[in-house]
Write a structure and sequence with these properties.
This is PDZ domain-containing protein. By secondary structure, this protein is α+β, with helices and mostly antiparallel strands. It has 2 domains: about 55-60 and about 175-250, PDZ domain (Pdz3 Domain, Roll), CATH 2.30.42.10; about 65-75 and about 85-175, Pdz3 Domain (Roll), CATH 2.30.42. Helices cover about 20% and strands about 25% of the residues. A hairpin with a 6-residue loop joins β8 and β9 (about 200-205). It is elongated and about 55 Å long. About 30% of the residues are buried. Mean pLDDT is about 75; it is low at about 1-25 and about 35-80.
Amino acid sequence: SRLHSHSGPSRSGSSRRISLHNPRAQARPRPPRQSSARRAASMFCCCKEETVETETAQEPVVPAVELLQAEEPAAWGKVEEPQAPQEFQAVLGRVGATSPYGWTLDMMNYDALYIESLADDASTPVATYNKSASAGKDIQVGDYITRVNGTSGSARELSELLFTNMQTQVTIQRPSTYVVEVSRGDKPLGMSLNHTPKGKHLCIVKVRDGLLQEQAPEASKGHRILSVNGKNMSSRDLLDELKCSSLKLVILRAPVV
């Protein structure tokens, strides 16, 4: 879906007065007047409309983003990580070939699987592992799977490897987050975003010329916006919050593969 900003009166709703006593008035059209609602919005609304490109993916493992998976990482977006992300191994055992792991994954990063949510069922392989995991090595929402049984690959390849064995070793990576503040002006933010229907974050899939690149050059393709102005909410609500004139973004870095 695309959000677009339009201005100006409709053709059917515009009118022009012409003086019958002054011929010059007929040759000088009057400029269009803003509606009272639009004047009020420009005076009192703290938010501005922003064209934000979005592509909605499906769940739990997202086939609709296949074209995005095929894109190579943007060259300009290579940023030195301030610190190495936390990484650990987890061994998960399933009781059946079709048994779920107890997580929802998305494939919006090219070479890793993002853990979007965890099931409440305490009997799932993930929940069973977490019960005995050492401190800081439990699987959490926001973690990435970067290897399956020691093998790296595309997000789709990793998702297929998860179901080749009844016992699977996954490499979990937990990148750090950072905070940026952006003040809106006349320029667009300059980014394309992707999200899943029930997600609570926005994945940056492209950065163009705009305010984000100028004021927060660290933000790049593959990073995920977790909250806007201190609000953790649905992806669609985050999109609405991005229209505000002042933005404080909490962003999760991409995994290092």
